[in-house]
Each structure stands twice: as structure tokens, then as C-alpha cells.
From TrEMBL:
Source species: Alteromonas mediterranea
A GO CC term assigned to this protein in UniProt: photosystem II
Pfam family, any one: PSII_BNR
Protein name listed in UniProt: Photosynthesis system II assembly factor Ycf48/Hcf136-like domain-containing protein
UniProt KW keywords: Photosynthesis, Photosystem II, Signal
Biological processes per GO annotation: photosynthesis
Stretches assigned to the Photosynthesis system II assembly factor Ycf48/Hcf136-like domain: 34-106, 112-254
Signal peptide: 1-23
UniProt xrefs under InterPro entries: PSII_CF48-like_dom, Sialidase_sf, WD40/YVTN_repeat-like_dom_sf
Length: 348
């Protein structure tokens, strides 16, 4: 399964950055657990990240402690491998801790790039990727000591790929410029077995079997953004996104629409049990779906008035209507991060 950067079809180039202009350390906020928190991950402990460089760690999933980190950049995503934590966010910042968040180092910081990272994933404690806005894609093979940037043309719509190939025949430099300008946002990556899944802007859903070095783009009859993608079992993959849209792929067939009758954007997927899966969204909306998921012939662009949800779909809303950004299960509890802080979900 181990690959090398030399095997990558995408364009790669070295990353140079300076930490001289780093912002001061994150503000230690007395009400940090009620602040805007954007991502959560867990292994033997829980890590949460959010605005202004906030990082919270908990050993039991109940009591959270804010950690001092050397940035005030908004942190959008985090991942945990053993005692290692990586967090990424605005200003193309990448942070790392090797001791459960007690001490931190800056591995990347490029505010002049003006592109945020939106997700980070490590295959082990050495090999990882960070993805973000406008096709931002960095890879490390040494635990983040060095990062290399990649551009993946295979993530583009086929018509854009065709256009770029014509450009490349005439001018390689202009090809690289155009590629960088039209790559979509890469919102979320998920690994299942040997397959890496990616959800992004403008109808982008893709998979890779070589740790993201090459990609196969799915065809989906929808051009809105997707914000999460997860396999539910060996034959079923679920994707959620803009305006409450949910699509499911069964047995590697066509992506089919799931009717929810909700137009709140869905940000993430939480697998509750073998029989239930949840999509978490803006306005505190939570869509519960009975597995196997139903599908609908309804047009995702149709007017939702007089709508009837597919069988097995239940839409609910948390009390304060705060946007639900992501969630994880830890020690039997479903912990969510929201625009109003940490919440425990009552999954039914």
C-alpha cells in the first residue's frame, strides 16, 4: 500500500514557508466550550478545534481543557493518530502535537497563499494529506517535517480536463496556471480499508486506491457542493451537501437521490449503528436515515413544496438551532461540535 511521491500522476512541487510572521498564541478563552467549534476527532482521547486557534482535549469526552497553540488562525479540521494530533486551517496552517496536545509545533504557515485547509488525514504516524480550498492538496511522508504540494487534474469535471489537455499542448506554463485557478474546493476525505474517498465543490465525489496519488471521479447528476462522504458498508457509500441534498451509491451503480424535504445544508455524516446513519447540518438540523437507505426518483433541483420524505427518513432540530459541523462517538456518547460549542446528541 505504501507509495512514493514519484509515482503520483499529479503535479507536485516543494513547499517553502516562513514562520516569522506567525500570530501570537491562541487566546485562552474562559467560555471556549461555547465558541465556534468546527471539527472533532477521537482515538483514545478526544480533540476539538475551532475559531481563533482554539484546541480542546478530553480524556473522557466530558471534561475538556483548552491547549495553548502558537496561532490564532481559525482551525477547520483535526485528526488523531496514537498520541499525535494534527490540526489545519486558515492561513494554510498545519499544527502538530506528539503528546496529546501538551506541546505544539508549526509545520506549515502560508498566509500569503490566502487558501485555507479544510481537512487533514493521516494513514499512519508518517504519511498524511491535507486538503482545502481551490484544490489545495499537500502530502507528507515524514510526519509533517516536510510537506509537498500536489495538483490533481483528475478531480476536475471531464469537460475541464479536456480543456486543460488542449491548453497543455500549447503552453505548459499556462496549463499550470489554469489548473491552479479552476481546481475545486476539497472539503472532506475519508478512508475505508484501502479506499480513500473525497467530497468537494461543484458535484465532486471521487475515490482513490493509492492513498490519493491518483483519483477516479464519480459521475453524479448534481453540481452543488458536497461536504462529506462515507462508506456505510462494502456496497454502500453516502454523500451529503448543499441545501440538504443526500445521495447514495449502491453496488457501484449510479448515485441516487435521497428525499429528506429539508433544505438546510448538511455538513457531516455520523454512523450511529448498523441500522441508523445521521446527517448533521445548518440550523441545527439532523437527518436520521434507516439503513438500507431509501432512494427517490425526485429531481434534486425540484421545488421542495408539498414534499414527502422517503420512507425511513426523519428530520429533527436541536433546541438552539446552532449549526452542527461534525460529531463522533466516544465512550458511548455522541459528541458534536457546533456554532455554539460542544453538544451531546440524543440519537433516536
Amino acid at each position: 500500500m505504501k507509495k512514493t511521491i514519484a509515482a503520483c500522476i499529479a503535479t507536485t512541487f516543494a513547499v517553502n514557508y516562513s514562520t516569522a510572521a506567525l500570530a501570537e498564541e491562541a487566546f485562552m478563552a474562559p467560555l471556549v466550550e461555547q465558541s465556534v467549534l468546527l471539527d472533532i476527532d477521537a482515538d483514545s482521547f478526544v480533540v476539538i478545534v475551532g475559531e481563533r486557534g482554539h484546541v480542546l482535549v478530553s480524556e473522557d469526552g466530558k471534561a475538556f481543557n483548552q491547549k495553548a497553540v502558537p496561532t490564532q488562525s481559525t482551525l477547520t479540521a483535526t485528526t488523531v493518530v496514537g498520541e499525535n494530533i494534527w490540526a489545519v486551517g486558515h492561513d494554510a496552517v498545519i499544527l502538530h502535537s506528539s503528546d496529546k496536545g501538551e506541546t505544539w509545533e508549526i509545520q506549515n504557515y502560508q498566509p500569503d497563499l490566502q487558501r485555507p485547509f479544510l481537512d487533514v488525514f493521516f494513514f499512519d504516524d508518517k504519511q498524511g494529506i491535507a486538503t482545502g480550498a481551490y484544490g489545495l492538496f499537500y502530502r507528507t511522508l515524514d510526519g509533517g517535517k516536510t510537506w509537498a504540494a500536489e495538483r490533481h487534474a483528475s478531480l476536475l469535471d471531464p469537460m475541464d480536463q479536456e480543456y486543460l489537455e488542449e491548453v497543455r499542448k500549447e503552453d505548459e506554463a499556462f496549463y499550470q496556471q489554469e489548473l491552479e485557478s479552476i481546481l475545486p474546493h476539497l472539503n472532506r476525505v475519508t478512508l475505508d480499508g484501502d479506499t480513500l474517498y473525497l467530497a468537494g465543490e461543484a458535484g465532486l465525489l471521487a475515490k482513490s486506491t493509492d492513498m490519493g496519488q491518483s483519483w477516479e471521479r464519480y459521475y453524479v447528476d448534481y453540481t452543488g457542493s458536497f461536504f462529506d462522504i462515507k462508506p456505510l458498508d462494502e456496497n454502500t457509500v453516502l454523500a451529503v451537501g448543499l441545501r440538504g441534498n443526500i445521495f447514495v451509491n449502491k453496488n457501484q451503480g449510479e448515485w441516487e437521490y435521497v428525499q429528506t424535504c429539508s433544505t438546510s445544508t448538511l455538513n457531516s455524516i455520523l454512523i450511529g449503528s448498523e441500522s441508523k446513519v445521521y446527517a448533521l447540518g445548518n440550523n441545527g438540523m439532523m437527518v436520521s436515515a434507516q439503513r438500507p437507505l431509501p432512494t427517490s426518483m425526485r429531481d434534486p433541483y425540484a421545488n421542495p413544496s408539498d414534499c414527502k420524505a422517503d420512507d425511513g427518513i426523519v428530520v429533527s432540530q436541536i433546541k438552539d438551532k446552532a449549526a452542527l459541523l461534525n460529531a463522533t462517538q466516544f465512550n458511548g456518547t455522541s459528541i458534536a461540535v457546533t456554532a455554539n460549542g460542544i453538544k451531546t446528541l440524543n440519537l433516536k
